[in-house]
Write a structure and sequence with these properties.
The protein has about 170 residues and is an alpha+beta fold. It has five helices and six strands. Helix 4 crosses helix 5.
Length: about 170
Amino acid sequence: MSDSENSQFETSIPIAETAFEKRRGIRHVEIRSGYAQVHVTQLKVPISETRLDILQAVGNAEISVDFLKFTPTGVSFMVQDLVAEKTTRILENFGAMFSLAANRHIVTVHAVNMRDEQGLIADVMAHAIRSGAKLEHITDMHDRMLIVVAAEESELLRAALQELAQGKNGN
């Protein structure tokens, strides 16, 4: 390549780069409403078969479950408030011991690679506990944490986590 050809490349306008990665740290805290928390306990032995029977009955009624967890004596999950009464009838017909707490909110903390950011999950949990909200269920994914609370406590929790986000992100 000649010197004149090289100078053409040196004087060209730089190309703006596109950012592919999202900013690290907490990006957003949101509240989703309209859920009920279900706890089914003291299931008949064999517990694993009874769990499956209950989930099959709920599924046959076209009820979607979230936050499914197996407990030592039963199962717990979330359903939409709209189907809470229908879920109650299924469980009553099943003869299961259960509780259903309606009007639950899911507070979601969004953060890229949350599990890889050292101490971030611990910081979220510390702020959540200090908020004073009663945390009923917690789960995490690679890019978010979801915390179930009673509706009247969700804004309290959101504010505490938003404060953490502003502090961590320097906003």
